[in-house]
Design goal:
mainly beta; Peptidase_aspartic_dom_sf; Cathepsin D, subunit A, domain 1; binds 2-acetamido-2-deoxy-beta-D-glucopyranose; Aspartic_peptidase_AS; 2 domains; six-stranded mixed β-sheet; 437 residues; TAXi_C; globular; aspartic-type endopeptidase activity
């Protein structure tokens, strides 16, 4: 399981970050067509991560990048040369005299306030990021071309800054993500989305639709915002996260004493994490409600809390009837609720047991944060709108790529009609799909 929220920021930014009102863009990407769509692969279980294929360099080469809305910096495992890299699906990225210097504003934005050292202007820009799962990446910032096919049919290859990571530490060597790096989609300056938006190429909006059956899609830009049906919650702007403020938990349609949970959305986390107190209370609610209808499966080490039925569960569908839906109801916001069906907080393991996919964040050092991870973001369209400082969601069929032909001009509705097999056939380097218009 992975938890790619940035620990560094968790510990330091909360105290020091001041409110920065959203800046007016120099140029603003206008109108229809300034979006990019990427098919997504991966799943919550057994893989534990979702990823996209992104082409980088000249000539462009494909890389698998873990989708992470919990951090800003995109980085690739890098032959600089590599001191410590994990097995990756593609050969390591090779920098080619394209280092960013420490004078670059992007370099300063990566380091905490007062923590930016730039003794000589020609010096390289080092970075280190530490994730909440105790993984880390150390490297230097480089700049290279990212050919992107926009929804208007044009391919543009902007030069974007990202990390060339030559020293990756991982805690759990048994469950390494088989990726080439991380796609950081936070709202910080160093995020490639922010870079694209300050170049006027796309709006600072990112959305994902992660399918419970695996796969899905990711998009940059605001062409895929439906006109209605989305529940929006303002982002708390003083934090460096997609942090949505406190919510109360309902269990099976009833209020509980689990209240005021500060919520953060993080696609880089496989599972959902509650604070220790909320976690303990939830486990006892679920256990009380199960009332021994399922037996504890302590022998299943897949996750901390598992149960078994009279015979092994084949899929999540067999198990959900034993469990009640949860609702996170945001306080100080009218009718802003995030629904968690049992499918959004349970997995069925290879041993045929059902396990709780909400974990104790206190045990991994998340402190007072409640992190909503992939398991609970599945089968929803989730939109992080940094233009209007809000996050929105709606139930969706994520098995189909959005089809632009459907309702051009009147906003998009999900699910989109498109060929079922399309998602797997299309590779991002060649969106034959879009040119059919
Ligand atoms: C398509 O969108 C991109 C990104 O905003 C832009 O750079 C390009 O000029 C647009 N192409 C056309 C033909 O409008």
């Amino acid at each position: 399981m992975y938890l790619k929220a940035l620990v560094f920021f968790l510990l330091t930014w909360i105290a020091t970050a001041a409110y920065h009102p959203p800046k007016k863009q120099a140029k603003s990407a206008k109108g229809f067509g300034s979006s990019v769509v990427f098919p997504v692969s991966g799943n919550v279980y057994p893989k534990g991560y979702y990823y996209v294929t992104i082409s980088i360099g000249q000539p462009p080469k494909p890389y698998f990048l873990d989708i992470d809305t919990g951090s800003d910096l995109t980085w690739l495992q890098c032959d600089a040369p590599c001191k410590k890299c994990t097995p990756s699906p593609h050969s390591l990225y090779k920098p080619n005299k394209n280092l960013i210097t420490c004078l670059d504003p992007l370099c300063a934005s990566l380091h905490g306030p007062g923590d930016h050292n730039c003794p000589a202007p020609q010096e390289q820009c080092d970075y280190q990021i530490d994730y909440a799962d105790h993984g880390s990446s150390l490297g230097v910032l480089v700049k290279d071309s990212f050919p992107l096919k926009f929804t208007n049919g044009s391919t543009v290859a902007p030069q974007l800054a990202f990390g060339c990571g030559y020293n990756q530490e991982v805690l759990d060597t048994a469950h390494l993500p088989y990726t080439d790096g991380v796609l950081g989609l936070g709202s910080g300056k160093s995020s490639i989305l922010t870079q694209l938006s300050s170049m006027g190429l796309t709006r600072n909006v990112v959305g994902h639709c992660l399918s419970g059956q695996g796969g899905g899609f990711l998009f940059f830009g605001d062409d895929f915002l439906p006109n209605s049906g989305i529940v929006w919650k303002p982002i708390l702007s003083q934090l460096k996260y997609y942090s949505l403020g406190p919510a109360d938990l309902q269990f099976g349609g009833r209020a509980t004493n689990i209240k005021g949970l500060p919520i953060v959305f993080d696609s880089g986390s496989t599972f959902t994490y509650f604070t220790s107190q909320a976690y303990e209370a939830l486990v006892s609610l679920i256990k009380g409600d199960l009332n021994r209808k399922l037996k504890d499966a302590v022998e299943d080490k897949s996750l901390p809390v598992c149960w078994k039925g009279t015979k092994p569960f084949k899929s999540i569908r067999d198990a959900v009837s034993y469990f009640k839906p949860l609702v996170l109801s945001f306080t100080n916001a009218k009718n802003v609720q995030f629904h968690l069906q049992p499918e959004s907080y349970l997995i069925v393991t290879e041993h045929g047991n059902v396990c709780l996919g909400i974990l104790n964040g206190g045990e991994v050092g998340l402190g007072n944060f409640n992190v909503i991870g992939d398991i609970s973001l599945q089968d929803k369209l989730v939109i992080y709108d940094n233009e209007r400082q809000r996050v929105g969601w709606a139930p969706a069929n994520c098995n189909r790529l959005p089809n632009m032909d459907r309702d051009y001009g009147e906003g998009f509705r999900l699910p989109y009609a498109a060929d079922d097999g399309l998602l797997k056939e299309i590779c991002p380097a060649n969106f034959g799909f879009w040119s059919n218009r």
